[in-house]
């Protein structure tokens, strides 16, 4: 495989670097040194060529309604059984009412891109995410109770600027 192909593969393994290339905010010499693929000048040149072929990073917004539901827990661990429909269910593991967590639910124009943006923003704010998912027209993020209000604000803000 060529050095250029190695550089492209290395960038694809690091989504943050791919987004930065698409946004046009990369110091190519520093990125080449970070990737440590060999001759930094050759890698930087390969990164420049790769960046020229990438689509520009664009932003979108989503029309969503965001609500907060306190007292959510893991069925079988935090609560014995759910009194109502689960808020989030993955492979038989359910989160429903009656526990120590808070669920932030966005309904409307949701998709995995919004979930990715929400998770990245929550990570940047050091918010612990206990569970998250998106299906149909609903997105749910489950966090510790004390982080519920901050998470609600972050989800609302994230829906206004999604990078695609």
CATH level-two architecture of the largest domain: 2-Layer Sandwich
Main beta sheet, described?
A: 5 strands, antiparallel
Strand content: 25-35%
Poorly predicted spans: none
How many domains, in number, for the residues?
A: 2
CATH topology of the largest domain: Alpha-Beta Plaits
Structural class: alpha+beta
Shape: elongated
Distance between the termini: 29 Å
The sequence of SSEs as H and E is HHHHEEEEHEEHE
User: What is the arithmetic mean of pLDDT?
Assistant: 91
Core attributes:
164 residues; single chain; 7 strands; alpha+beta; 2 domains; Alpha-Beta Plaits; 40% helix; five-stranded antiparallel β-sheet
What does the model show?
This protein is an alpha+beta fold and 164 residues long. It has 6 helices and 7 strands. Strands 2, 3, 4, 5 and 6 form a 5-stranded antiparallel beta sheet that branches. A two-stranded antiparallel sheet has the order 1-7. It starts with a helix and ends with a strand. The relative contact order is 0.15. The model has no long low-confidence stretch (mean pLDDT 91). Pfam families: DUF7523. InterPro entries: DUF7523.
């Amino acid at each position: 495989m060529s050095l250029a192909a190695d550089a492209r593969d290395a960038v694809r393994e690091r989504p943050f670097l791919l987004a930065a290339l698409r946004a046009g905010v990369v110091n190519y010499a520093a990125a080449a040194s970070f990737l440590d693929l060999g001759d930094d000048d050759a890698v930087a040149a390969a990164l420049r060529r790769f960046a020229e072929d990438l689509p520009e990073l664009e932003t979108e917004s989503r029309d969503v309604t965001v609500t907060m539901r306190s007292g959510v827990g893991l069925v079988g661990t935090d609560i014995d059984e759910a009194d109502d429909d689960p808020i989030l269910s993955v492979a038989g593991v359910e989160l429903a009412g009656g526990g120590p967590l808070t669920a932030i639910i966005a309904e409307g124009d949701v998709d995995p891109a919004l979930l990715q943006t929400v998770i990245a923003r929550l990570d940047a704010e050091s918010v612990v995410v206990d569970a998250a998912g998106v299906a149909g027209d609903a997105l749910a993020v489950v966090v510790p109770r004390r982080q519920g209000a901050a998470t609600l604000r972050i989800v609302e803000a994230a829906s206004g600027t999604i990078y695609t």
